[in-house]
């Protein structure tokens, strides 16, 4: 599979080849221009286009970042102008026109004069009207026009390259800013989630310690595994699905140890988890909400958690009874769900389906495309 960097390099190589082929195929001299070694105009164009390719990368990697972005506009435009002069003058220096000026010169027809004998003027009449010295001093019009056309042609392409590199730079900087903003938002959301997990787990172990339960040691081991996952792996963009599932298993086992038979808890995982990647801590908020806000000692507490993995698609369904909550708890629940939804939008844009139903039971269905 070709990675993004290799694809970018390949596109640059193809773009340079296509650009350098333009003087050969888009010239009035085609197909005579195919014989590059004998066609001087094509040779000059190839040199100019090769210099423009060099200027493109010089402008993109050096001039714009070092001068234009830092607002050193005088230096930037001075160097750009110097580059254009080099591009427009160098081809003619290396590949001069091998025709003599008088071969390109076509003298103007002689002006009409009174000819009483009604005879045609001869060559001697034209030469008599324009001295040879003056004729030699006149610039050959065709050669000058051809040179002017070439300079304007180079100028048009040169300006297009300058604007194209500016657009690319602005686009890359916008993408980089968006990426940095995305990473900052993810760090913010994770910072809100991780202390929440730790707080709940410590409460569970605290209750074991008060009761002097033999399960305290087991709970500490599971907490250690959870903390190791949070510290070492939660900062990554993606982790192995097996690690995320192990974290959920440890969390649920701690809740089983805490609540015992006081809740009806069903947890099932179907499918193959090996070799698949997932964003860390993306599933646990829905499970945590079911435990924290779906359990009440005065009511029947039911929690069902089903995780189904089919090829590269994961579906998790969490269902729990609705119990009476204090207003503060309800507000915190809404905040936690909002944070999780925001993170899903950032990490899995267009690759997830989240269904939340708040009826007789609280129902959450999350489908993720793990590709």
Model description:
Residues 167-194 form a coiled coil. Residues 105-135 are annotated as: Disordered. It comes from Parafilimonas terrae. The protein is an alpha+beta fold and 371 residues long. It folds into 2 domains: 4-99 and 136-175, no CATH class; 181-369, Histidine kinase-like ATPase, C-terminal domain (Heat Shock Protein 90). It has helices spanning 4-25, 40-68, 73-94, 101-104, 123-129, 132-137, 141-211, 215-233, 241-259, 284-293, 327-347, and strands at 239-240, 264-270, 277-278, 302-310, 313-321, 352-358, 361-369. The strands form 2 sheets. It has a 5-stranded mixed beta sheet with strand order 2-4-5-7-6, with helices on one face. It has a two-stranded antiparallel sheet with strand order 1-3. Strand 6 and strand 7 (361-369) form a beta hairpin. The longest helix is centred in the middle third of the chain and has 71 residues, at 141-211. It starts with a helix and ends with a strand. Mean pLDDT is 78; it is low at 100-108, 122-138 and 327-332.
